[in-house]
Amino acid sequence: MKQKIHPKYIECEINCLCGNVIHTRSTKAKINVEICAACHPFFTGQQKIIDTAGRVERFRKRYEGSTYNKK
How many angstroms from the chain centroid is the CA of residue 49? Predict the structure, then answer.
């Protein structure tokens, strides 16, 4: 291994919007995330739609008349 080219690997705190805090190691001291394993729908089994500025409604409105994949 070459000397003096690798970043420092330090203790890290990962904060999720749901309030979950994870302590690990990384090259950054603090990381903020929107979704973690405690609140992700795949792990919780709950469907939670995060609507930012009406994007979900605009999508549904745009494709409400679509006949794609309808029986």
Answer: 12
